[in-house]
Amino acid sequence: RYCSEQVAGRLYRPSACVINAKASLAPHPSRTAARSPMSGTRSVALVVTLASTLSTAAALNVYPAASRTPLLVGLRNKVGPGVSTQRATGIKASANAPMTPSVATHWGVIGMMSILANALGRLVPIALEPFKLGGLSTVQWCAYAGTALGMAYIEGYKAFQLKFSPLVVTRAFTLGPEGGRLTPLRGILAPFYSMGLFHATKKRTIVSWSVSLAVLCVVAAVKRLAYPWRSIVDAGVVVGLTWGVVSMGVYYFRALAGKMPGANPELPPQ
User: Fold this and answer.
1) Strands 10-11, 15-16: parallel, antiparallel or unpaired by DSSP?
2) Burial category of 257 from C-beta neighbours within 10 Å (exposed 0-12, middle 13-18, buried 19 and up)
3) Predicted confidence (pLDDT) per residue in 168-196, tens digit
4) pLDDT for 80 beyond 50
5) Would you place residue 229 in the very low, low, confident or very high pLDDT band (cuts 50, 70, 90)?
6) How does strand 15-16 pair with strand 2-3?
7) Which residues pair with 2 in a beta bridge?
8) Residue environment code for 79-102, b if the CB has 16+ CB neighbours within 10 A, otherwise e
9) Phi, psi (5° rounding) for residue 14?
10) CA torsion, points 149, 150, 151, 157, in degrees to nearest 10?
């Protein structure tokens, strides 16, 4: 015989109960199949596997803490153990269905990619000037290549692929039906909402604005550099931005196919 216990609002796996052999409480034959431990274990394992691949679709009040995805664990930790995910974030959790995009979702991701692509269009000609004008020393060519490789790793991989791109896609999908965060203002400003400039946690808002202002200051400073150093710096930025656009597009199309990035959207409570 198996039993389950509810502790602190969380459902734990059934544990074996020691039954006195002399007890006369034998289970009814018709209930034997329904209480089969193997069938229940397989069902839970299947659901947990699906939930782990869909980071925005898990029910916090059903599955064990070890089976929750990083996205929903982060949300639960931020809003406290006594608050449900749907109440705190407005996201309707589901274990077997991807999040449905809305027009605002597409506008948020594509708009953000367009902003990056516009910056690329302005920087690429400057980054390619050394190949047209020449005049670089061996040290400067090494600096050119080193900047490109360094920014590919720091800006492209570490900043965009691991952090910013999945954040943008995940937040954009919270503007869909399951996300429950769509308003007229957020729909119009979806690219800026997706990058966390507003309607985000305090930490995310501060980080997003700080990074944006820092980028503007760096851009203003780089414009004052003489040739070829401006081209050397811009070459690294071009590589990083290109990596960012590609990674964001990959996350976007994978999310449309049903596989969410799994990033924490860092949303404030509803």
Assistant:
1) unpaired
2) exposed
3) 999 999 999 989 999 999 999 999 999 99
4) no
5) very high
6) antiparallel
7) 16
8) beeebebbebbbbbbbbeebbebb
9) -60, 145
10) 90
H helix or E strand, kind and range, residue 133: helix 129-133
Burial class of residue 260 (count of CB atoms within 10 Å of its CB; 0-12, 13-18, 19+): buried
Query: Quick check: 71 and 179 in contact, CB under 8 A?
Result: no
Q: What is the C-alpha to C-alpha distance for residues 222 and 224, in angstroms, rounded to an integer?
A: 5
Per-residue pLDDT, averaged over 86-103, amounts to 58
- How far is 110 from 257, CA to CA, in rounded Å? 16
Q: How far apart are CA 261 and CA 162, in angstroms?
A: 10
Taking only the tens place, the pLDDT of each residue in 134-162 is 999 999 999 999 999 999 999 999 999 99
* pLDDT at 27 > cutoff 60: no
Q: Tokens at residue 57, please?
A: 């679709």
- Which tokens sit at 268? 């404030």
- 3-state DSSP call for residue 7? strand
- For 136, other C-beta atoms within 10 Å of its C-beta total 18
Parallel/antiparallel/unpaired status of strands 10-11 and 2-3: unpaired
Q: How far is CA 94 from CA 12, 90, 100, in A?
A: 19, 13, 12
pLDDT digits (tens, 9 = 90+) for 126-136: 999 999 999 99
